[in-house]
Amino acid sequence: MLIRLLLTILLTLTVRSALAQAPDSDPQAVDLLQQVLNNSGMKTTPFSSFTAQGTITYYWAGQPVQGSATIRARGNDQFRLDANLPDGIRSFSTSKRGGSRKGSDGKVSEIPAHNTVNAGIPTLPYPAIAAHLADPDATISYVGQADNAGPPAHQVRVTRNFPTDADPDGILAALFRSDYFIDAQSLRVIRIEDSIHPVQSMSESYPHAIEFEEYSAARGIAVPALVRETVGGQTTWEFRLSDIRFNPALQDEDFLLQ
Fold first, then answer.
1. What is the DSSP letter of 113?
2. Which CATH code is given to the segment(s) 2-11+22-245?
């Protein structure tokens, strides 16, 4: 029932009508996200797409497997990663809140919708932040100073609100929730936290995070050279950037796995 409702929301153009009126956002939280964008370099170097090259290391059963990687991204919801690994090419792609994977054997499998609603652009936080700030159905709130072992950071939460009869247990709202951790000094995003779910269940969840490190200027944009994914506190992959190019001509077809 819930999965069917989620798919209905994602596959229609009337998402707003299915959502309750979002409560007013916290001005402090909105300002923090806006400052992240202001400090990113996007005002002087605006971009709507990018390609990136680098190396990726997957951690499978505790063993690192490394290869070269190519990334393509467009807008705030189209992303593709192709990894050239010892056993062949493996690909991951999300587009307009749908997604798929392709194994080294050439088999393509669909990623369930409840694991793509927050997929965004995993290796660069700015497209998602810009989309949140422009979304009248998003509620942006200030959680407080983050309780972590690193430098002082602000925690900002982005949520969506659904009618109680459609989401009595808050499961759908939890799917769309993201927490941004922003370094208090540099105003760079150092981590985004949300959740990931088993293929057959959207009510069972595991902590999921994307971590950003080693920011440097690339063609005027502050770009993290090291991006890491963790699930349940365990590292699943790390991407190290070697080159990035902004505003290449990309089409929807570039994000289809066949």
1. G
2. 2.50.20.10
